[in-house]
Design goal:
Blueprint: H1 2-5, H2 14-43, H3 57-62, H4 66-73, E1 82-85, H5 93-97, E2 102-106, H6 109-121, E3 127-130, E4 140-144, E5 149-150, E6 153-154, H7 165-170, E7 175-182, E8 196-202, E9 205-214, E10 222-227, E11 231-234, E12 249-253, H8 255-259, H9 263-269, E13 273-274, E14 282-284, E15 293-303, H10 306-315, E16 318-325, H11 332-339, E17 345-354, E18 357-365
Parallel strand pairs: 1-2, 1-4, 2-3, 4-7, 8-10, 16-17
Antiparallel strand pairs: 5-6, 7-9, 8-9, 10-11, 12-14, 12-15, 13-14, 15-18, 17-18
This protein binds S-adenosylmethionine.
Length: 370
């Protein structure tokens, strides 16, 4: 294993590394050691100790990111014990076990073996159990990260999760606390009202939604949490934002804020308004510092049209173009190609709708002002 980790594992050098490993460890162990070394290296992006832990390619892909798992685990810190259903090799299990006595359950024997090794590697104590979670009747505190794949393909219908979401939520009356990781696109409006929904993003990428029940709730219906900073926006009551023409600044809310349907709350925070009541861009007179989105200075607003946009962008000496869009079918790649810009200045074009009409905003990120 250490021989494999010491090789150059970059894709271009992989054939040479495979030959070296076959020579060093034989035709069976050599490729396995090499695969594990590649996974361990890749795992550093998900877990700070990823290189010390054991993975399979699929388990690594499915594993929760460390920051997200640690954030979630805190809600169980006061429980006497938590059941981690569908624990796999430990993406959540290890974070839970660091704060609460944890029992991991999975159907896959190999993953359980790796989970046990991983816990030992980090000096954590866990209990592990091989069982089909659909046959359980749990009590106490439960965290579940249901399998969202069937026959190797991703499933989007929560009734097709294993265990199905309905089954997990059916346990709610007998549980003290429940946390369920689900896909961020779930239709939250159809969930039982006693559940709390938390949308989590990590460095601006929406990672997941978590449904919280019982004592794991914090007392809101929807919230957006931005990691690693831990800023939280909740669905506190605010006035419906006004809808007006674009002002001098534009805020693009974080994806977790949008998915949690909290654009009105962020608009209230920055004294902003919407350009269109169905679109998640917030306009404002001035920049109000907020962790919940990225600010742009609007240089110009024009009705969307290729010729006029090209002309105006050329007058700014625009070259590399960042295209943002909401509420329009225009394809960014296609637009860049057709604009044929050759200038040197990097600018942002925001394509969207205002009062039902397509508009283009020429803008630049506020961080790069000056
Ligand atoms: C999305 S992964 C969990 C990932 C894990 N939370 C992590 O962060 O590493 C889902 C897991 O569910 C397990 N699983 C699928 N069907 C199951 C069942 N009926 N009973 C128990 N485990 C099951 C799979 O083996 C897989 O390890």
């Amino acid at each position: 294993m250490s021989r494999a980790s010491s090789l150059d594992l970059a894709p271009a050098a992989r054939i040479r590394a495979a030959e070296a490993m076959r020579a060093a460890a034989g035709p069976e162990l050599g490729p396995l050691a090499l695969e594990q070394a590649v996974l361990k290296q890749r795992a550093r992006a998900k877990h700070p100790d990823g290189e010390r832990l054991w993975w399979t390619a699929e388990a690594l892909e499915q594993a929760s990111s460390y920051d997200v798992a640690v954030h979630r685990a805190r809600r169980f810190a006061d429980a006497p014990q938590v059941l981690d259903l569908c624990c796999s090799v430990g993406g959540d299990l290890l974070a839970l076990a660091a704060v609460v006595p944890t029992v991991g359950v999975d159907l896959d024997e190999a993953r359980l073996l790796l989970a046990a090794e991983n816990a030992t590697e980090l000096g954590l104590s866990v209990q592990l159990m091989r069982a089909d979670v659909t046959g359980l009747n749990p009590t106490g505190a439960v965290f579940a990260d249901p399998a969202r794949r069937a026959g190797g393909r991703r499933v989007f219908d929560p009734r097709a999760y294993t265990p199905p979401l309905d089954q997990l939520l059916g346990w709610l009356p007998q549980l003290e606390a429940l946390g369920v990781k689900v896909a961020p696109g779930l239709d939250y409006d159809r969930l039982p009202p006693e559940l709390e929904v938390e949308l989590v993003s990590l460095r601006g990428d929406v990672k997941e939604a978590v449904l919280w029940g019982g004592t794991a709730r914090r007392g809101t219906r929807r919230m957006a949490t931005l990691l690693p900073g831990g800023d939280v926006l909740t669905d506190h009551a605010v006035d419906t934002p006004a809808v007006r023409a674009p002002g001098p600044f534009l805020l693009e809310p974080d994806g977790a804020v949008i998915r949690a349907h909290l654009v009105a709350q962020v608009a209230a925070q920055v004294q902003g308004w919407l350009l269109d009541e169905t679109i998640a861009y917030v306009s404002a007179e001035a920049v109000v510092p907020t962790p919940f989105g990225n600010w742009y200075e609007v240089l110009e607003v024009l009705p969307f049209g290729l010729k006029a946009l090209r002309e105006r962008l050329r007058s700014y000496d625009a070259g590399p173009l960042v295209v943002k869009k909401r509420g329009t079918a225009v394809q960014p790649e296609e637009l860049r190609r057709r604009l044929k810009l050759t200038g040197s200045r990097e600018l942002t074009v925001v394509l969207t709708r205002a009062h039902g009409r397509q508009i283009a905003l020429i803008a630049r990120p506020v961080a790069s002002l000056g």
